[in-house]
């Protein structure tokens, strides 16, 4: 039996407490009695937990487990994340102690901030919800935050993207412990997508915090307005009366990427919108967003979103405008 503990704490998302155990229970039924199953418990250093939405949870005392899952918490507007994690010293200590014992630690969504507070993300690759990836990188500068990934595992520490990514993690766990056939069947029974590889298709740039520096904002605006134009670094620098070297340095300092990297991501976002909402051909969309070769465009689109353009359209189609 694989012992899995879910660490409950005040304000945690109740659905993220029970989502992984429920899928593991389904996997146990799918696997049958001849395969080792899962022993799951909801644990806490506290006696009483009130989760998100005012739901009271029944918890067990902390115990030794093979895998400790740390759910995310409710992030209401204006919530001070630093104050939130600082108010959970017992939970952070439990996470740190579990990792020190050589056991696996997993965070769901913004549960990654508790792992960061415990010092587990330093010098490790990690992910979290795309909406809060920049803040995690700022709060934990020694971590290599990968906001495009759904699940990242690095030396016994696993982090996941937002909410439903708990199922991506759970399916990986089932695959490792019970076999690929059990994971595949469990996904079918639960109607869970077991072929996702990236959270990029779900990013809504309108919800992302805008860069705080005016120069990079103006360059981004210029690139957005000239999306289909051929990328010309010298012309771009001339448009802002700076040298190419200064442009690259200032943009990287403010935006954390190069203008060309931003342009590619902006083109992919626009292409994704057109694939979702219009009947235009892939070749036509490719040309509209500034690429001449559909094959090159398809490869770049897949690199950013984890899906080829036609597969993306099939998954996210919303009806033609």
Q: How does this structure look, described?
A:
This protein is of the alpha/beta class and 321 residues long. It has helices at residues 14-31, 81-86, 89-100, 112-117, 133-139, 165-178, 180-190, 214-225, 233-239, 244-255, 259-277, 282-288, 294-305, 309-316; strands spanning 2-7, 38-43, 49-50, 56-57, 67-70, 104-107, 125-126, 144-145, 151-154, 157-160. A hairpin with a 2-residue loop joins strand 9 (151-154) and strand 10.
Helix fraction bin: 40-55%
Number of DSSP E strands: 10
Report the sheet-strand fraction.
5-15%
| Number of helical stretches of at least 4 residues | 14
The succession of helices and strands, N to C, reads EHEEEEHHEHEHEEEHHHHHHHHH
Shape: globular
SS class: alpha/beta
Ends apart, CA distance between termini: 52 Å
Q: Quick gist of this model?
A:
With 321 residues, this protein is α/β, with parallel strands linked by helices. It is 47% helix and 11% strand. It is built from 14 helices and ten strands.
What labels would you give this structure?
321 residues, single chain, 11% strand
